[in-house]
Amino acid sequence: MEQNNSLPPFQGLASPQGALTPVMPMFSPMMPYGSGLTPQPVTNTNSLSLLEEQQRQQQQHGMPGGSGQTPQLYHSQTVTTTTLPGNTPLYNTTPLTPMTPITPATPASESSGIVPQLQNIVSTVNLGCKLDLKTIALRARNAEYNPKRFAAVIMRIREPRTTALIFSSGKMVCTGAKSEEQSRLAARKYARVVQKLGFPAKFLDFKIQNMVGSCDVKFPIRLEGLVLTHQQFSSYEPELFPGLIYRMIKPRIVLLIFVSGKVVLTGAKVRGEIYEAFENIYPILKGFRKTT
Amino acid sequence: KDITSRADGDVLALPKVQCPNHPDAMLVEDYRAGDMICPECGLVVGDRVIDVGSEWRTFTNEKATKDPSRVGDAQNPLLNGGDLTTMISKGTGAASFDEFGNSKYQNRRTMSSSDRAMLNAFKEITTMADRINLPRNIIDRTNNLFKQVYEQKSLKGRANDAIASACLYIACRQEGVPRTFKEICAVSRISKKEIGRCFKLILKALETSVDLITTGDFMSRFCSNLGLPKQVQMAATYIARKAVELDLVPGRSPISVAAAAIYMASQASAEKKTQKEIGDIAGVADVTIRQSYRLIYPRAADLFPPDFKFDTPVDKLPLL
Q: Where are the annotated segments for Disordered (chain A) (predicted)?
């Protein structure tokens, strides 16, 4: 996950992006970063309650974020100020001793209260042995193999509704799952299928390659205004695609922003990046709300 | 005296030409007669100065195609990298052919191999621009953009024609007269998808950006292609602008809105055009025009300019 270093906005310093000192994650989403790489909203955080909140969160969340937890858990219902859902457990921060000075409290900017839902997870795993695609295609159920069109077996299972591309080298791509745990489970199921067909399948290097999330900000957006002010990040060509393509740098995420207010976020390796990106973009989108 | 030689044995003394009466005067050179004339007294001081003008006289009423003062092609050295090489052209006399009829000196091929692709692309750009009658300034801008992209080499793997088409699109946009992707597609062999991809890559590579397209950019072209009078064109421009201001067509491409506005304006005037005709000119499907038209139809009365002369009143406009 992203290590977010924060600096007080009015000091105007560029945050040292590469610094490894874990800093309190609560500063991440809403704090304007001096580097200009993250979108700069005009809000500030209420630091004091965030400190308490972060302490509380650390006690609550024992497991690493995103291990199959439903999004509600990340809401942390008591939060009134910004908290980055899912981020806290991975930071072993020393509470109450900020590495960087905390900004003095200005009236709280609420978190958006909207949590992006994950729609698709793409993961890869290495089964560790060469496979004979023809036998797999012939013997397995729900498998299709058309070597002239594509050099892999396309297998589908119903339980976590997913599709897998199984290559003869033993590598496999699993797509369609809605959460990280489901993706892992599905990949294991595919591996078991291959194992049952007689191949010495293992489960090596399972890695999530891409996560796609979507959400709705519930108000229409002026895309023309957004492309004018955020020219270096945005690309809006109505002739080519009706949505604005926003390439955020700080968590490296691509967002597709539509006039209706729907937002699609993709390119994340971990769940927290999606949430962080959305928290970054939400204040900006609020600024470009259509007033009619 | 014309040439004075120094008597003091100064080895490096160059013969200095000066007027005997006015040694300080700067001599004026009259190259026509080959004289150096003293401006003070008019004395011709030096004669038989070598004339660096041309050997033949040029008359201005002759055809401009052959300009004898030029001794080379009127190349654009800025774009070409300063091609000062000399080529040996094909022989003209009988002696230049050997026994089989082949020309003796054959090597005319590699004149500028490094920029051959660039020259090819310039030719292609000129051909494409010619098809849609683009003025010279857009062609020059396109050539410049292509040169920048080519030198950067970041898009080296892409087809040169695709890069050229995308440069043409960007140049039109930058000059304030955007052409739709479909119009560029029509004069290029590259698909819209590929041109769009190259367009985004070039903007990133050159770190430039372009303005957003508006409905008004295309009105004059579409309307004159359809043969609509100025009144209808102005009405359509007004309708499209009003529709976007009132946010009646959120998320619709400006081309589609423009086409729908033209349809509404033409249907209200004496020159009625069908959706199909407008769709052909604008490169928009007629169902798309129908969709956008349905969105602006309810507010039709507000969208027309106040001084518009209706041939068909607003309530009789077709509901399609």
A: 53-73
Whether B49 has a pLDDT exceeding 70, the answer reads: no
State the Cα–Cα distance between residues A155 and A160, nearest whole angstrom.
Answer: 13
Residues B300, B219, single domain; the answer is yes
Torsion of CA B228, B232, B234, B239, to 10 degrees: -120
- Distance to chain B for A261, nearest Cα, Å: 11
For residues B175 and B234, give the distance between their C-alpha atoms in angstroms, rounded to a whole number.
22
Task: Report if residue B36 sits inside a domain.
Answer: yes
**Interface touch B253/A292, C-beta < 8 Å:** no
**pLDDT tens, B205-262?**
999 999 999 999 999 999 999 999 999 999 999 999 999 999 999 999 999 999 999 9
Per-residue confidence (pLDDT) for residue A47, from 0 to 100 = 42
Residue B125 lies in a domain: yes
Residue A13: φ, ψ to 5°: -85, 150
What is the CA B158 to chain-centroid distance, rounded? 23
Alpha-carbon span B174 to A94, nearest angstrom: 54
Q: Are residues B195 and B227 in the same domain?
A: no
B99 inside domain: no
Of A227, A231, A292, the CB nearest to B247: A292
Smallest Cβ–Cβ distance between A227 and the set B181, B203, B212 belongs to B212
pLDDT, mean over chain A: 77
What range defines the domain where residue B234 resides? 215-316
- Cβ–Cβ of B250/A292 closer than 8 Å? no
Q: What is the complex's ipTM, to 2 decimals?
A: 0.75
Q: Is B54 helix (H, G, I), strand (E, B) or coil?
A: coil
When divided into structural domains, chain B yields a total of 3
Annotate B125-149 with b (16+ C-beta within 10 A) or e (fewer). beebbeeeebeeebbebbbebbbeb
- Most confident range (mean pLDDT) of A21-25, A82-86, B239-243 is B239-243
This prediction has a pTM of 0.70
Q: How far is A255 from chain B (nearest CA, A)?
A: 16
- Interatomic CA distance for residues A260 and A220, integer angstroms: 5
| pLDDT above 50 for A68 | no
Q: Give per-residue pLDDT as tens, B67-104.
A: 666 666 666 777 776 666 677 777 777 777 777 777 67
